[in-house]
Amino acid sequence: MASKQDFVRLPAPDGVNGWWESLPSPAPANTATGDHRFDFVVVGGGITGLCAARRLAELAPEMSVALVDADRIGRSTAGRNSGFFVDLPHDISSESYSRSVEADKADVRLQRHGIDYVRETVKRHGIECDWRDDGKYHASVNKKGHTALTHFADGLARIDEPCEWLDEAAIGRVTGTSFYKSALFTPGCSTVQPAALMRGLAATQPSNVTIFELSAVKAMDGRGQTKVLSFAAGRIEAKQVVLCTNAYAATFGGHPNGLLPVYTFASMSRVMNDDEITRLGGAHSWALIPADPMGTTVRRLATNRICVRNHFAFRPNVSVSAADLAKARHLHQRSFDRRFPMLKDVELQYTWGGALCLTANNGALFGKRADGAFEAIGCNGLGLSRGSAAGKLIAEHALGQSNALIDQLLHQPHPRSLPIRPIADVAVSAAIWVKEFSAGAEL
Ligand SMILES: Cc1cc2nc3c(=O)[nH]c(=O)nc-3n(C[C@H](O)[C@H](O)[C@H](O)COP(=O)(O)OP(=O)(O)OC[C@H]3O[C@@H](n4cnc5c(N)ncnc54)[C@H](O)[C@@H]3O)c2cc1C
What we know:
This protein is α/β, with parallel strands linked by helices. The protein has 11 helices and 18 strands. The longest helix has 25 residues, at 101-125. The chain binds flavin-adenine dinucleotide. Residues 7, 10-11, 43-49, 68-71, 76-78, 80-84, 86, 216-217, 244-248, 264-266, 309, 354, 356, 379, 381-385, 387 line the site of flavin-adenine dinucleotide (FAD). One of its GO terms (molecular function) is oxidoreductase activity.
């Protein structure tokens, strides 16, 4: 059976990824030209695919594994996020990030499993990606935000997770700005330089993994055991295929599969000079999430840059326009200026977007499909920790293992189907607009 639906949308250069730009130039890519055969092919070299390929190779050292990506590994979405490996409940469609006690506990179990796997890999291989186990601050800018934080704290108490309140002065001492009125510190979150992490995870794959970059899969043919993946100038025959293409797997029109490619955007400042660093004050490095999920995420980086993220846009074709990027940059500059009036000369050097894969019911795709391929798709905005876990666990599942977390993923809700376009476009865009509007001052 031809499965061209899976590959109709390919990564586009959506702005300039500041994390990638601040790394040294990579070695030339190994591209998929000519004919190849592998036991396993993992499609998608984001965090999910990187963990899937590693786990397959670890558990089956006698098997050959290919990991293919349409872009350079680290330049696409997994290398262009804000770098939070979130352990706690983080449902961005909920006003307090929380769901029910059972759902929250299940999320925490899964996310910590993913974080532990990547942290252990980073430590074992000495991957230089500024991995920090320093926790995160959830900060509010007004009474409404403080109330949302109170609900989040209540949700954490219900699942026995610790957190610590900071008043205006205390969060000001961390961030250097008087913009925030209160904050909750949660200790379990890790942060990274995401492009460096993805490159490091690629460079340290076991020796039975071959990586192909700048190699977009155009089509997959074959039902059951053997599949043929076609590229612009080559093909790979595979006994098993694992799809980790996240938002790029979204299909609309005749076959809506419930995956929503929703873009979010980030900007990174230039490096601050000594005078600017003194004017800002605060801690050398910190990571902050807004009280309202639609607000602005901010990181102060050890490299003396500041990274801000906000704004969402539903883009079913999985690419953004120059106008989208210009709007995002304008919003980022406004958010930056409001928080850091003492840094009025520090311009934003890079602005970019990346596609999240959201679903209306927080469901995701995990397991074996009717055509025999395996899939782990649907990050719901938390791909670093959830994708790490889903990638590792889909590999274990594909090799016939079973455990409680695989069961948890197999039994999670399937993404709820959406109305066909253009009804879906209007409904999703309107929902985003309403939520962003209500985030107000948190932007
Ligand atoms: C600005 C921004 C900030 C974010 N902040 C955070 C955060 O702090 N924490 C967090 O957890 N998440 C965050 N996210 C979301 C996070 O980046 C995603 O959840 C994560 O990247 C999902 O990982 P993935 O491997 O499942 O998918 P992706 O990273 O999307 O990887 C899929 C890969 O598949 C490849 N691909 C697609 N089609 C093909 C094809 N036909 N052939 C070959 N390759 C193909 C793509 O090139 C891509 O590399 C953020 C996202 C953005 C954009």
